[in-house]
Design brief:
Structural class: alpha/beta
Number of helices: 14
Distance between the termini: 63 Å
Shape: globular
C-alpha cells in the first residue's frame, strides 16, 4: 500500500466520519433515539419543521407489512405531537411508493383471524394526523399503497407514477379505505372501473381525475414536496390545522353541516393570537410573526 493511497484513505475516512457526525448533530435529538427497520425518518426544510418519512423495504417494493405499518404509525404520531413540525412528507423510492399490502403475510390468514383481530384497523395514523401530510408518489402506488397515499392531505406524483386498486386480481377487495376514498375523489364510475378491473391509471390520468394535485419529474419530486411543505409551514400551525379540519369535513358531512362546521372553526380563529397578528400585519403591510397561539 502506497503512502499516497494511505493518506487518501485516511482523508476519505475522516470526511465520511465528519459527514456522519454533522448529519447526526443536525438531526434533532428528540428523534435520534428512534430506530426503525422499515422506514427512514428525517427533518427537512430550511427551518427544520418538516417531518420526512420514507418507506424503506426496497426488495419488497415497499410492501406494507404489519411491522412497517406499526413503525409508520409511531413516526407519524411522533411528528404530529411535536410542536415544531408544521407539515409531513411521506414517500417511497423512485421505483415504488408502495406496491400494496404484503400478500405473503396475508396469504394464510383466516376469516376468523382477520375478523376477531379487526385486521387493518390500525392503518389510521395518517388519516387522523392533525398535521398536514404530503404524499410524494413515485412509481407504484397500488392497493394499500394507493390507500395510504389517499390518507394523506395532498398527493404529488412523479411523472412515471401509477395508481390502482388491484385487489380484485387476487380474489379480495380493498380493505383500508380504497373503495371509499377513491370514489369520493374520482367519482363512482371511474372508481368502480378501477376496483372491478384492477386496472391502473397513470400520473397524468390521476391528475385529470383529481387524485393528485401536481406532477413533477421523478428526480425532483421530493424537492418539490419540500417546497410545498415550506409554503404551508410559513403559516400559523394552529390555523393550518383548523383549515385542514374544515376541508376534511366536506367528505364527512352534508353541505349544510359542513358550512356550519366551517363557520364555527372560522369563529374559533378569533380566539387566537395568530389571527390578530395576521390581520394586524396585513393592515400594517408587513410580514406576520406567527407564534402558533
Amino acid at each position: 500500500m502506497s503512502l499516497a493511497f494511505s493518506f487518501k484513505t485516511i482523508i476519505s475516512s475522516r470526511s465520511l466520519v465528519n459527514k456522519v457526525l454533522t448529519t447526526s448533530l443536525s438531526f434533532p435529538k428528540r428523534f435520534q433515539s428512534t430506530a426503525y427497520k422499515n422506514i427512514l425518518i428525517d427533518v427537512r426544510g430550511q427551518n427544520k419543521d418538516i417531518g420526512f418519512i420514507q418507506l424503506n423495504r426496497p426488495r419488497a417494493l415497499n410492501a406494507l407489512n404489519a411491522e412497517l405499518m406499526t413503525e409508520l404509525e409511531q413516526a407519524v404520531t411522533k411528528f404530529d405531537s411535536d410542536p415544531s413540525i408544521g407539515c409531513m412528507i411521506l414517500t417511497g423510492s423512485n421505483r415504488a411508493f408502495a406496491a400494496g399490502a404484503d400478500i405473503k403475510e396475508m396469504q394464510n390468514k383466516s376469516f376468523s383471524e382477520v375478523c376477531k383481530g379487526n385486521f387493518l384497523s390500525n392503518w389510521t395514523a395518517l388519516a387522523e394526523s392533525k398535521t398536514p401530510i404530503i404524499a410524494a408518489v413515485n412509481g407504484f402506488a397500488l392497493g394499500g399503497g394507493c390507500e395510504i397515499a389517499m390518507m394523506c392531505d395532498i398527493i404529488l406524483a412523479g411523472e412515471k407514477a401509477e395508481f390502482g386498486q388491484p385487489e380484485i386480481v387476487i380474489g379480495t377487495i380493498p380493505g383500508a379505505g380504497g373503495t371509499q376514498r377513491l370514489t369520493r375523489v374520482v367519482g363512482k364510475s371511474k372508481a368502480m372501473e378501477m376496483v372491478l378491473t384492477g386496472d391502473r391509471i397513470s400520473a397524468k390520468d390521476a391528475e385529470l381525475y383529481g387524485l393528485v394535485s401536481a406532477i413533477h419529474p421523478v428526480e425532483s419530486l421530493v424537492n418539490e414536496a419540500i417546497k410545498l411543505a415550506e409554503r404551508i409551514t410559513r403559516h400559523s400551525k394552529l390555523t393550518v390545522q383548523l383549515a385542514k379540519e374544515a376541508v376534511n369535513s366536506a367528505y364527512e358531512t352534508t353541505l349544510a353541516q359542513g358550512i356550519n362546521h366551517e363557520r364555527r372553526l372560522f369563529h374559533a380563529t378569533f380566539a387566537t393570537n395568530d389571527r390578530k397578528e395576521g390581520m394586524t400585519a396585513f393592515v400594517e403591510k408587513r410580514k406576520p410573526n406567527f407564534t402558533d397561539l
